[in-house]
Amino acid sequence: MLSDPLAAGLLLASLGLAALYGIIGRRGPWQVRLPVKAGSVLLLAALSALNETGSLVVAALAFSALGDAALVFRTRGPFLAGLAAFLVAHLLYGWELWSGWDRALPQVWQWGAGLTVLLVVLGMLAAVWNGARGMRVPAVAYGIAILSMALAAILSGNGGILVGAVLFVASDAVLSLETFRIPEDSYLRRYTAPIIWWTYYGAQLLLSLAFARA
């Protein structure tokens, strides 16, 4: 897959932009942050298209890049637009995974992992419920979408896809706490921002590569 020079170049460029965003984070003008942040995932979409991974995965990555672009702006309107874009991305990932499920009876570890993810998503919603007044319906819809995607990843039995889904859930959990529970001037935001970014980008990287090999 990566023996193709173009594929290797796309991957290296994506990693480079991800590292650059990891350095600049939320500092600097949006005109710099937006293309760097969204570009890192858009290049993964291009890599997936080159590898003929599947239109659903490519579309999921493209919608994720759109969500990244929206979330550069830390206001309500762009936040809701970004939430909607990521909701669509999770539905597309889930569609790809559920359509490939062989309907085999889940193993014990899959039951345990599924229950754990369910509890994490419910805990995430409970933790932000009071702070998410006016946004509870979108938050619940998003929680259902990511739960469905994560459960499908567990049932896939693919290690890369599973780890990618877990990282996605972790990133979203920290992001929701930061958005609705952690004050803007809290020192905790020094740590939440890099955690959110690297778990998120790691999730997208693993998912794109794992789907290509599936």
Automatic annotation (TrEMBL):
<feature type="transmembrane region" description="Helical">
    <location>
        <begin position="38"/>
        <end position="66"/>
    </location>
</feature>
<dbReference type="InterPro" id="IPR012506">
    <property type="entry name" value="TMEM86B-like"/>
</dbReference>
<feature type="transmembrane region" description="Helical">
    <location>
        <begin position="78"/>
        <end position="96"/>
    </location>
</feature>
<comment type="similarity">
    <text>Belongs to the TMEM86 family.</text>
</comment>
<dbReference type="GO" id="GO:0016787">
    <property type="term" value="F:hydrolase activity"/>
</dbReference>
<protein>
    <submittedName>
        <fullName>Putative membrane protein YhhN</fullName>
    </submittedName>
</protein>
<keyword id="KW-1133">Transmembrane helix</keyword>
<feature type="transmembrane region" description="Helical">
    <location>
        <begin position="141"/>
        <end position="171"/>
    </location>
</feature>
<keyword id="KW-0472">Membrane</keyword>
<dbReference type="GO" id="GO:0016020">
    <property type="term" value="C:membrane"/>
</dbReference>
<keyword id="KW-0812">Transmembrane</keyword>
<dbReference type="Pfam" id="PF07947">
    <property type="entry name" value="YhhN"/>
</dbReference>
<feature type="transmembrane region" description="Helical">
    <location>
        <begin position="108"/>
        <end position="129"/>
    </location>
</feature>
<feature type="transmembrane region" description="Helical">
    <location>
        <begin position="191"/>
        <end position="212"/>
    </location>
</feature>
